[in-house]
Amino acid sequence: MMYEKMFIDILEKEMVPALGCTDPVGVAYAAACAKKYVEGVIISITGDISVNIIKNASAVCIPKTGGKCGVSLALALGAIGGNPERGLEVLSDIIEEDIEKAEKLINRGIVQVNVSENPKKLYMRVTLQTDQDEAIVIIEDTYTSITSITVNGKMIFSDEPKEDCCKNNDDIKNEIFYGDLSLESILNFAETVAIDKLEILQTAVKMNMAIAEEGLAKDYGVSVGRSIQSFVETGKMDKGIVSHAMMWTAAATDARMAGCDIPVMSNTGSGNQGLASTIPVISIAKKMEVPYEKMVRAVAISSLVTIYIKNKLGALSAVCGAVIAGAGTSCGVVYLLDGTADNMLAAMQSTLGDVAGMICDGAKAGCSLKVATCTNTGVLSALLAMENRNIKGTDGIVGYGETQTIDNFIKISTEGMDKMDNTILEIILNKE
C-alpha cells in the first residue's frame, strides 16, 4: 500500500506515552526545559499561558503529588524536579521533597501564572529566573514543540519548530503529510499492513489497558467505571458490549484524571483521546473473542480516524476531545463487526451528529462521564451503521460524505464556539 510508511510515521508521531494530563505536564515540560539552561537559586517562575491550557490544567490532579492540582504547581515541579529528557513523562522522577520545595516557592509568591495574549490555542511562555541566569522557553501548537529559547537575553534557538529540543536530538524529522488520510485509505492501510509494523499500537494496548485495570481495582475520582461495573453486576445496566466498553474506558479516565502515576499512550497530545480511541475497541474485541491481530488492526483504524479529525481541528478547542475519539471508536468497532468503509462513514456521521456540541470545560474527574457518553455514542453508532441506519446528510450538521461532515463539525467547534473557552475560564476563575 502506497501510504504505508506515511501512516506508520503518523501513528508514531501522534501516539506517545504521557504521564498525567498533558496540559499541566506540558507546562511542567516547558519549565523543566528552562531549568536546563540556568544555574543558581530560583527567584521567580512566570508562565504566560493560553486560555485553553489554563482551563485544562486548573482542576486535574498531577501525578505523584497525592491528588494535588494547579498550573502554579506544574510550573514549580517542572523547574525543580522535572526531567525534560522524558518528554510528556517529564514528572516521572519527582519525589516528595520536590513537591515540598515546589509548594514553598508557591507560598513565597514567586510563581506567577498569566493569561497569554497570544491568539494560539496552545501556547506557553515560561520565564525562569535564578540569582545567576534567566531562561525563556516558548512552546506552541504541540506540548513539546519548542519554538524559542532565550538565555540571558540571547536567543539560542528560534523560528523552526523542533520536537523535543531539550533532548539534544539533531535529527529533524521530515514534515509528515496528513492529506492522504481518509476513511478508505485508513481501512486499506489497516487491512494490509504487516502486524509487526504496528508495534506502537501493540504497546498502546498494553499501556492503556493497564490503567483501565487500575481504575476498576480502586476508587478514583467519580469512579464512573467502577460504578458501571456495579450497575452491571446488580442488573441496573445490561451486560452488552456498550456497557462493557463504557466501563473499561471510564475506569481508565477515572484513574488518569485522579493523578494515577501509570503512563498512557496519548493520541494527538491528549491522554484521554488516547484512552477513548483505543480501550472501547480493545475491550469489545476481548469480549467478542476477536483474534488479537484483528483487534490491533481495529485499534489502528480508531486511532487514525481520531488523528484524521483532530489534525483538521487543531491541537486544542472548546469541544471535548472525547467526541473525536468517539468517532474513531465507531469506525474501529465497525471493523470488528466486519463492516465496510461505507459503514464506517455512517457510524462517524451518527457519532458527530449526536455529540458534536459537547464542550470541554477543563480536565477534571468528571471527564470520565464525558468519555463514557462518547463511548456509548460511538459503539451505538457502529451497531446502527451495521443495520444501515445513521443520521443522514439532510440532518443538522451532518453533511454529504466524510469531508463535509468533518468540516461542519470543525466549523461548529471553532467559529460556532469561538468565545466558549474564555467564558469557561471566567467561570472557573470566579469559582476560585
What topology emerges from the helices and strands here?
Blueprint lengths: L3 H11 L2 E2 L3 H14 L6 E8 L1 H7 L13 H11 L14 H12 L3 E5 L7 E8 L3 E7 L4 E7 L2 E4 L4 E2 L19 H10 L6 H19 L6 H10 L7 H17 L6 E2 L5 H6 L2 H10 L3 H22 L7 H16 L4 H15 L11 H19 L16 H13 L5 H12 L1
Parallel strand pairs: 2-3
Antiparallel strand pairs: 1-9, 2-4, 4-5, 5-6, 6-7, 6-8
Helix pairs in contact: 1-12, 2-3, 2-4, 3-17, 4-5, 6-12, 7-9, 8-9, 9-11, 9-15, 11-12, 11-13, 12-13, 13-14, 13-15, 14-15, 14-16
Structure explained in plain terms:
The strands form two sheets. Strands 2, 3, 4, 5, 6, 7 and 8 form a seven-stranded mixed sheet that branches. The chain has a two-stranded antiparallel sheet with strand order 1-9. It has helices at about 5-15, 20-35, 50-55, 70-80, 95-105, 185-190, 200-215, 225-235, 240-255, 270-275, 280-290, 290-315, 320-335, 340-355, 365-385, 400-415, 420-430; strands at about 15-20, 40-50, 110-115, 125-130, 135-140, 145-150, 155, 160-165, 265. Mean pLDDT is about 95; it is low at about 165-175. The protein starts with a helix and ends with a helix. The longest helix has 22 residues, at about 290-315. A hairpin with a 4-residue loop joins strand 5 (about 135-140) and strand 6. It is an alpha+beta fold. It is globular and about 70 Å long. It folds into two domains: about 15-165, 60s Ribosomal Protein L30, Chain: A; about 185-430, 2-methylcitrate dehydratase PrpD, CATH 1.10.4100. Helix 6 packs antiparallel against helix 12 (about 290-315) and helix 8 (about 225-235) packs antiparallel against helix 9.
